[in-house]
Design brief:
This protein has 260 residues and is α/β, with parallel strands linked by helices. The chain is built from 11 helices and 8 strands. It has one domain (16-257): 3-Layer(aba) Sandwich (Rossmann fold), CATH 3.40.50. Helix 5 (114-123) links the parallel strand 3 (101-105) and strand 4.
Length: 260
């Protein structure tokens, strides 16, 4: 979250003063996804987390500094994590090379100046810079496109191209696909690929910022149509196999940029 601020301090395009109220209830870090981040961090001891939110995926076995402009999100950070600094990624208040590694999870699509934020992350980091994000070209793999194509279209416009992020980190970047587990505890949209009933919960949709960019009528239509199709078996006839599929190869990617 970056740039022009909302009332609660949120920066970027999403107002977390509104949508972040019960965010931590639905967006708990998933151990499977966390393992990819831990592996990419390697032996880094000091880590900067940019757009840290409520602290998902922050490693507890390293010295972490968190940056988060939203007061609502800072207030939801659990007590075992360090308090977050009120700042944005565009202007990180740290000297060059201050950290062994830097990370940003589910946040770059909200930044108003991606290039500036990536450059700042690279500037303050001696080692790897990790970006957990979605590939906008692969969002339509998710069945939600059948029910709320407007939401998929919004996300595709918001998420930066993977190549753009890689270039912003200096070009020496590796793109790692991250399969999504069936019982993923981090409730971003695709986390419910095999549990469609969960997306009928308004709170689950609210914890996904894309829904705040479409008219409320779309959410109402989605809930009606999906509820009907679950009741009469239409959804299961087409997608029921996903209920037992251990992983889903969706749009989730981990980009790891290293100094040349």
């Amino acid at each position: 979250m970056m740039a022009s601020r909302h009332q609660d301090g949120s920066a970027g395009d999403a107002n977390y003063g509104v949508i972040g109220t019960n965010y931590a209830k639905y967006r708990q870090p998933d151990p499977h996804i966390a393992a990819f981040i831990q592996a990419a961090l390697g032996d880094a001891r000091s880590v900067l987390n940019v757009g840290a939110g409520a602290g998902s995926y922050e490693p507890v076995d390293r010295a972490v500094t968190a940056v988060e402009p939203s007061a609502s999100m800072r207030a939801q950070r659990p007590v075992h994590l360090p308090a977050a600094i009120d700042a944005t990624g565009e202007k990180l208040p740290f000297a060059d090379g201050s950290f062994d590694a830097c990370m940003a999870t589910f946040t770059v699509h909200q930044w108003s100046d991606l290039a500036a934020g990536l450059a700042e992350m690279r500037r303050v980091t001696r080692g790897p810079v990790l970006i957990l994000t979605a590939d906008p070209d692969e969002l339509d793999r998710f069945w939600l496109v059948d029910y709320a194509p407007e939401v998929i279209a919004v996300e595709a416009r918001r998420y930066p191209q993977i190549a753009t992020i890689s270039e912003g980190l200096g070009g020496n970047a590796k793109v790692i696909p991250v399969p999504i587990p069936l019982h993923c505890t981090d409730g971003f949209g695709e986390a419910y690929y095999g549990r469609p009933e969960r997306l009928l919960e308004p709170g689950a949709r609210l914890a996904n910022s894309a829904w705040s960019f479409v008219d409320a009528s779309i959410g109402d239509r989605f809930a009606f149509d999906l509820g009907r199709d679950l009741k009469d078996g239409t959804w299961d006839a087409k997608y029921g196999h996903l209920r037992a599929q251990p992983e889903f190869e969706g749009s989730l990617k981990l980009i790891v940029g290293r100094r040349s």
